[in-house]
């Protein structure tokens, strides 16, 4: 089925100037960018986004990293978008990510792992709505 998923190009990848290379991978795999924006997350916005990790030992470092520089937040649309995006990203830990995946190619550590992608259809719905109004999403007309 055609799905939407949320993608974040994290501060490490923005700093490396690989925004275009990462978006190109999504497009080459058949995922359409139907919304996108750059923003520098506040602690409140980053903390709210990762609220489910609040009790995890890495939470404070995660929020500090995600607020350390600008990010690019996008909605990707396509057949099986949630799983396909996760396949393109590779494992959370870049050291375990399959060859040719975004994290294998552009990230070094689990804390600074270049991209985030929704992990389920339910998270995707919540995460897309967290960053985008319906009116900001622009489905293809041609
Ligand atoms: P992300 O998909 O953005 O979701 C939460 C992030 O926490 C994750 O990517 C990692 O960058 C980071 N993180 C740091 N340590 C861990 C860990 N042990 N398990 C999962 N995520 C971690």
Please give a quick description of this structure.
The chain is an alpha+beta fold and 142 residues long. The protein is built from 7 helices and 4 strands.
Main attributes of the structure:
142 residues; alpha+beta; 4 strands; binds adenosine-3',5'-cyclic-monophosphate; ATP binding; nucleotide metabolism; magnesium; EC 2.7.4.6
Layout of secondary structure:
Elements: E1 2-9, H1 11-15, H2 19-28, E2 32-39, H3 43-49, H4 59-66, E3 71-79, H5 81-89, H6 102-106, E4 115-117, H7 121-131
Antiparallel strand pairs: 1-3, 1-4, 2-3
Adenosine-3',5'-cyclic-monophosphate binds at residues 53, 58, 62, 92, 110-111, 113, 116.
**Strand tally:** 4
Low-confidence stretches: none
Our estimate of the beta-strand percent is 15-25%
> Going across the major beta sheet, what is the strand order?
2-3-1-4
Biggest sheet statistics: 4 strands, antiparallel
The value of Rg in angstroms is: 14 Å
Cofactors, ions, other ligands: adenosine-3',5'-cyclic-monophosphate
Judging from the principal axes of the Cα atoms, what is the shape?
A: globular
- Quote the average pLDDT: 98
Q: What pattern of helices and strands is seen along the backbone? A: EHHEHHEHHEH
Query: What's the tally of helices?
Result: 7
Q: Roughly what percent helix?
A: 25-40%
InterPro entries: NDK-like_dom, NDK-like_dom_sf, Nucleoside_diP_kinase
GO biological process, one term: UTP biosynthetic process
Function: Major role in the synthesis of nucleoside triphosphates other than ATP. The ATP gamma phosphate is transferred to the NDP beta phosphate via a ping-pong mechanism, using a phosphorylated active-site intermediate.
Keywords: ATP-binding, Cytoplasm, Kinase, Magnesium, Metal-binding, Nucleotide metabolism, Nucleotide-binding, Phosphoprotein, Transferase
